[in-house]
Amino acid sequence: MSIWHITGGSPLRGQIRVQGSKNAVLPVIAASLLCGADTELLNCPNLSDVDAAMDILRYLGCTAARCGDALCIDTTAPARCDIPRELMHRMRSSVIFLGPLLARFGEAEVSLPGGCELGPRPIDLHLHALRLLGAEIEEGEDSIVCRASHLRGAEISLALPSVGATENAMIAACAAEGATVIYNAAREPEIETLQSYLCALGADVSGAGSPVIRITGFSPRSHAGLRIPPDRIAAATYLCCTACAGGEIELTAAAPGQIVPVLDALRAMGCAVSTHGERIHMTAHGRPASPGAIVTRPYPGFPTDAAPLLMAASLRCTRPAMFIENIFSGRYRHAEEMRALGAQIVLRGPMALVTGVETLHGASMKSPDLRGGAALVAAALGAEGESTVTDAGHILRGYESLDETLRSLGASVWREKA
Ligand code: UD1
């Protein structure tokens, strides 16, 4: 069990380069299966979720190797189309392999990803899209078998703009005969990255970033390359850590245009935020003002993954702050842990009301999930004395050396490797 020790009270100062995006690289790794090609991906974050995705490729008979921040993948000779339970459960978003396997082999057999810390994670929209493309799907208690001797283009209308379902549909549609149109598609920046990669592999895909995506053809290529864009949630995390601890930070290699609602909320809290191209500069001093009401929504709304971090930053705000979570029912488990620091948070269904307190005190907390764990570390940076965060293994699923990076900014954060 990994335990983090945080001593709060030191302001953060310095410059950090934002890591490549976890949520962008994972579907790209899965999509590399679409045809026999070698792919070079640059700016890939070194994360346990990325390792898990590479292990899935290796299990399937592909080669996948890391060299610094580059991943080299060769998918010319995969030998199987099943993914065992143990591998599926190592990565929450492993269901993204369903579309690529179906496209490549006409068959896919995976175990179900199951629920997770954020509440139930249904995949009905993924399966709906694949069925419309011609897949026959058998759902077992813990497994899914998809078969399609012939995928055909379809008009797919998603009841919700699910990121994962949009990605699976885009990838599978590349192997279909005829055109596919996806309506009410997710508009997240990660969808645009996937489109760029699919185009690099030879697919005709357009519309990513809008609610309508068209896939009209595919002439497979044998080489593809892509640079993974910056991680918008990691950027939001470092800004919120600074809002908690106070100080002055500059992020480089960032994409400020992708986190406008987060930057606006930090400004409303009294942080001085400025952006210049790929740089974000922020200073934070004293008790923050309230961010008002933070309502999570699909992109370009306030990202659900950044809400726990902003909640950490608002625990000491001078007026109440309201959070409304619209994406995941189990999002607030970190809030219960934050109360140990002296935070005043009232939870009512999708709403959380934070009444800021003058001082937070170090406490022992347990990490509930990836972003919740990072939010507890952020909150502890703004508390007096020492805090511990146990069960913190989740954090490294999404952050490359978060502890080292915070130390480089002057924080006292140590990870006990157990
Ligand atoms: C992705 C991100 C995750 C982020 C989330 C929302 C990755 C690897 N993960 O997750 O970090 O928090 O987007 O921005 O990119 N839903 C259904 N049926 C489905 C699929 C989804 O009802 O078949 C619901 C979910 O329960 C949830 C909502 O749709 O309430 C959004 O989920 P979705 O966009 O699919 O999130 P993920 O792709 O799992």
Which kinds of small molecule does this entry bind, naming each only once?
A: uridine-diphosphate-N-acetylglucosamine
Principal-axis shape equals elongated
Radius of gyration: 21 Å
Sheet-strand content, in percent, reads 25-35%
Q: What ranges have pLDDT less than 50 throughout 5 or more consecutive residues?
A: none
Count of separate DSSP helical elements = 13
Helix content: 25-40%
How far the N terminus sits from the C terminus, by CA atoms, comes to 5 Å
Q: What characterizes the major β-sheet? A: 4 strands, mixed
The oligomeric state is single chain
Map the helices and strands.
Elements: E1 3-7, E2 12-17, H1 22-31, E3 38-42, H2 48-60, E4 63-67, E5 70-74, E6 82-83, H3 85-90, H4 98-105, E7 107-111, H5 124-132, E8 136-139, E9 143-147, E10 155-157, H6 163-174, E11 180-183, H7 189-200, E12 203-206, E13 213-218, E14 223-227, H8 232-245, E15 247-252, H9 260-268, E16 272-276, E17 279-284, E18 293-295, H10 307-313, E19 321-324, H11 333-338, E20 344-348, E21 351-355, E22 364-366, H12 370-381, E23 386-390, H13 402-408, E24 412-416
Parallel strand pairs: 2-15, 3-14, 6-7, 10-11, 18-19, 22-23
Antiparallel strand pairs: 1-23, 1-24, 3-5, 4-5, 7-9, 8-9, 11-13, 12-13, 15-17, 16-17, 19-21, 20-21
Helix pairs in contact: 1-2, 1-7, 4-6, 5-6, 6-7, 8-10, 8-12, 10-12
